[in-house]
Queue: 2 jobs
Job 1
Amino acid sequence: MNKFNQAQEIVKKFHQEHLLKFYDNLEEDKKELLLNQILETDFELLKELYEKRNIVSDSKDKITPIAYTDKSKLSKDELEKYKKNGEEVIKNNKYAVVTMAGGQGTRLGHDGPKGTFMLNIDPPKSLFEIFCEKLNKIKNEYGVIIPWYLMTSKENNNDTIKFFEENNYFDYPKEAIKFFIQGEIPMIDTKGKVILTAEGLIKQAANGHGGIFEAMFNNDIVEDIKNRGIEWIFIGPVDNPIVQMTDEVMIGYAVNKNAAAIGKSIVKANPGEKVGVFCKRNGKPSVVEYTEITKEMAEETDKNGELVFGESHINCNLFNINAIEKIGAEKLPYHTAFKKATYMDENGKIIEPKEPNCYKFETFIFDSFEKLDSMEILRGKREEEFAPVKNKEGVDSPETAVSLYKAYYNLK
Ligand code: UTP
């Protein structure tokens, strides 16, 4: 059976016949692309996700607190020991950084990859330039070039690479930077139909930051890491200019505890803050989202007056290579979001919504923690770790991030 016939059978089976309706209008290479998209799509999974879209999890999971270590309460000797051990890991070329830069940054509304967003400092710098500065600092101090892996999306990969090329990789050795593209999953409308782009191809969206592991395997990043003898991998976000890409104490702590992974936490600003916090779920490390815990749990304090569920997950996690291999072999669950998407309907009309109109499916990196038997949590200080660039204005905006960045680096 030829590809077209195979695709035809599939769309018929899953009541998605509209996907081939505009096939004849496509250029030859796009025809091929559409057929490949159809053959590669897991329609069974989409059907299941659509059927479960409105089911609010009434999970019977047992959520309990997780132990953590407060970095600021470590003794001077401990701090020195961990720092020295962490430095050794870096100096012995056993450390790599992975940055998740595949997000759409819809809330920020920046035209281009989020890492190209310019922060209003003097002189203005993009997030990517700031990260290169951090890595160059280590290069100059330790004489070590840390491999840097950047996860992009199909949507922003070319623009990301172009930005680095145009800026001469901000003087970081080009050969130490590897870009890799994360996976995608089609979006569907409220009737469960897979949507098309204006051109007539399946409209896909990046599969969430949980797609990092699958993407690292599919693009031979794990293999590259292993070939280089790297043991510790920091996976962090693109939208935090004070992210500690090379926290020697955290690395040394991981080595000393023989940890599978370490999650960096900061104290939740208040019980109502809309952040996920580290916890144990049925005895395994996890993150409980603010929508998932009761008010009582969110407000519960211990004998020192600290929140029992107060260790916010800030997307800064350090993994041992063995942990990545373990996680990579397993699938992470999809979460559903209702989003605005421009698409072509089955009559060939372009729908440009003002309100959310389609379902997008995403996996989350923290769902991987449960695959590990244990994980250490290391609490850092908010002002030394977290300056998120999420929203266009107001909280967690470029303005707040710039003032946090300036305060951290003592700039005017
Ligand atoms: P967010 O969850 O804040 O998503 O990403 P976002 O795409 O940047 O912003 P919104 O929600 O559309 O406004 C947290 C981190 O995870 C990365 C982001 O680039 C950021 O570093 N991410 C997110 C990916 O790499 N891929 C994804 O599919 C989603």
Note: Residues 76-91 form the longest helix (16 residues).
Job 2
Amino acid sequence: METLHDIPGLRDKLAQWRAAGLRIGLVPTMGNLHAGHIALVRAALERADRVVATVFVNPLQFGPGEDLDSYPRTLDEDARRLAVAGCHLLFAPTESAMYPEGRAGHTAVEVPGLSAQLCGASRPGHFRGVTTVVAKLFNLVQPDLAVFGQKDYQQLLLIRRMAADLNMALDIVGLPTVREPDGLAMSSRNGYLSATERRRAPALFRTLQALAAAVAAGADPTQAERDAAAALRVAGLEPDYVSVRRQADLAPPEPADTELVVLAAVKLGRARLIDNLELRRPAAAAG
Ligand code: PAF
């Protein structure tokens, strides 16, 4: 597997593949790869002739006081894991390659409305940074498809919406969350947890399971959200939000909506953890 850090080198390589008629898959990441990322690469390999993974800790999506400086950077190990998985090319640009004129004043891509809720409410500007860098990566690689994890449910919806709104001609593939044996969703930020916090962390998944089951059984979503937030606090996790939403647009559900998703973000020590579960509410329960 080749590793490239510069845009002209990337464009040359991709031009050769495109001239050969090869189908190109993209897996954007911020590195510190775990089994969840490798599952994205494998899914891309099943659907494309050549797979490009990117590792770039994108400063635009971190707010002041967030973990930009401490975010784990493990490029050599990431490259090793990607090569073992069969990835063809790693693109790991420098910040100056991606933002040669600096971060401030850079053109932004933003999906209005959806960017400001849930994670966007407590991380202003976060999703603008995500959609901006993903749009840049789509333009640089011009992939036939790109693969993202459903753990970042809101991010995935925003990227789908951006690609549709801007007529980007690629398939966006979403893959189920990969979990540790105790249910904790895999995340690079799990590494921030102390041993005690790590033991508490699966309460996030368990609480979402209970919330999804309650809503599927016909519980009032608002009351069920309150119960879930209380259960998280009892387990030692500080909820940022716990919410029942529609899968299609993350709007609060109307009584007739059946395809729902429960989402939560919690603070646990230094870590901010997110997770979600889709559920189907029977039409009868939906009223
Ligand atoms: O999900 C992530 O790791 C990042 O938000 C992404 C999509 C690579 C953009 O920086």
Note: The pocket of pantoate is lined by residues 28-30, 58, 61, 130, 133-134, 152, 155 (CB under 6 Å).
